[in-house]
Amino acid sequence: MKKLSLISLGVLASLQFVNAQNISSKKWADLFSYNNVLAMKEDNGKIVAAAENGIFYYTISSGEITKLSKANGLHEVKISAFDYNPQTKIGLIGYQNGSMDVVTPDGVTYIVDIPIATGYNASKKINHISITGDLAVISVGYGVSIFDLKKKEFKDSAFFLTGGVYEASNEATIFGNKVYSVTNTGLKSHEMNTTFPVFSTWSTEMAGSFKHIDSESVLTFSSPTTAYLYNGGTPTPLSQTFSNARDLVVNSNSIVVTDVNRIYTFNTSGNFNNSVTFGEECNTAIAVGSNVYGGTVLSGIKNESNNSFRPDGPYFNFAYKINLYGDNQILVSTGGRGNRFNTPISNPKNPGFYYFDGMQWVYSSYFTSGTKVFNVLDAIANPTDSNEVFFTNYVFSPDQGVYKMKYNSANKDFEFVKQYNLGATSIYYTRPVGFTYDDQNNLFVTVAFTQDASSGLGFYDKITDQFTVKSFGYSNGSQKPLFYEKLLWIPLPRTNQFLAYDLKGTPSNLTDDTDYILNQSNGFAANSGGSVSVAIDKSGDAWIGGDVGLRVLPNAVSAIKDPNSATVEPIIIEQNGLGEELFRDAQILQVEVDAGDHKWVSVDGGGVYYLSADGQQTIKHFTKENSPLPTNSITDIKVDRKTGKVYFVSYDGIVTYQGDVSDVTSDFGNVLVYPNPVVYSNFKGKVTIKGLAEVTNIRIADATGNVVHSAVARGGYYEWDLNNQRGKRVASGIYFVLMTNEDGSDKATAKIAVVN
């Protein structure tokens, strides 16, 4: 079997945003929700919309939708403000952490140096952005700042400080040569002159509590119940009153007020035109010609025919764990736990779980109707019937327990089948955590706080359609289990312990089983509060992530059965000539093993590390600062071994990374070399060779047959730094890659063109 495939890095497929914006991402993609539209602007038949974690534009005539997020150009998530100038094609995005992105036809510029008032320690969130020409006025919790979009720098700032107390600018706009700001105490204004930064020189045009303001041909502002037309004289209230005005948008010929479930339109003289509803809550709305478009909370952009437009994605961004199965199918759980993995994390959106059917995201109507409270820590599909899904509901309420759902493909919805309370007699006990199926397709669920306040295990009996729960009698918390070699491997997060549970080959009988416990005497750190995650690699070693470090149990199956002598070991790496423990005192949220036996490790607050098979080398380290990760605390990692795609899950959303290792066997797959050709002026990194055998002998020769580099690659891929065996960069030319697998039964070749 001989395979050769050459790919060129070349010009990557580009994302077009507001005309000619080219932002490319080769390996990253987002699985963000674009349902909650926060702001919109129209540009010549296109609507540019800001959602929680990204920007998208919708072309009205063609229906085309394109998105821009941290996966392909932006620098943050959690958007809190947005505006866009259709004339200059420049957009400005504000984030909850106080930073901004300037999006222009030439690229995206990250702005982190927003002026902060001395002594101000509250939220740095960007409350509002309003662009007029080449200037933007930025509203924050302590006042306003003027930002020059051409120079990408701040001009004057006015800090709203009175009597030692800062007042927030809810929104602000530039009208004429004045900045107008609405605050909780009134409509305030000041000319853009030398005294602009002195708050005592600002004028209060009208006292009151006002939330929204906008201007173009006219200036309008509003309280929650009343909108006013203002042209420098007495404010004139518009004819309609509102229950709770969410937004106010003005263009050259209309004023649009968004009032939760109804949108009101007026002409620029303040005369009422019409009102429309989109059947759900809206954050904002705009008029495009004679049509109104709503920016909804749950459905993206809606038109007056009630059609929705947004990039496909999960219902919300909040995510905790995922399970991959079938043909690119995904189940996402949306719960969470705090206080040493005890207290459910309250989520007012009550999301349940999300489902991707391989083509599109589906959200069950069961979670949008009724009054049940959900904190779903895990959702899993039956291996013999993927339409049957179980989920755990970890809550302090009678709604706790395991739920069975059935997917109805005809109407693309999950229907409730049954709730199992696992014998709980109190809302504080017998709370299910996570699932696993064994090799006979038997379902097990770990249980925290059984009736005797210890951790436990539930077995699902298909015949009786019930769960039998066994208490372990120690610890009072548990994590999602892992099934491997007839054992259930269960991290215990609230005590310095780790559990392996031997089913004895009789999974339906929990009375004849044996549980093996590891603790500090087996090598866990003395200051550990518990184990959090576990993965078992191709060598049969268990990688156990704790709240203060990482431990490895070699030959785990045999070692665990003799807990008196079993020893878990830290990974010791050399730093400056001294041995140091890898991830010492760090909480390890998740460990995942890819097809090449490399390890993905999520460190709470530290991002994600990609390690060599033995853990001695850090191949990659992704953080929210150097990658599209939405946060440095990734709650789950899953690798699709068929494709090598890696899923990173967090409370701020899901992103994917196309890894270099997939389905590694003793033979070669489709061998790919990239970039190719390697042009030094364009690329100064290493050349990647993927699709290799599990163990590959590599020789790289020049055109005359001289071997310039040789190596043994493990794990399905190799990176060549373009140096010869003397450590010098090779000359320009064509190089031949000659490869054999470990026993020489399979071969592959490739060519690399080098241009220095």
Automatic annotation (TrEMBL):
Organism name: Chryseobacterium geocarposphaerae
Cross-referenced InterPro entries: PorZ_N, Secre_tail, WD40/YVTN_repeat-like_dom_sf
Transmembrane residue ranges: none
Protein name: PorZ N-terminal beta-propeller domain-containing protein
Location of the PorZ N-terminal beta-propeller domain: 49-202
Keywords, sorted A to Z: Signal
One protein family per Pfam: PorZ_N_b_propeller
Signal peptide coordinates: 1-20
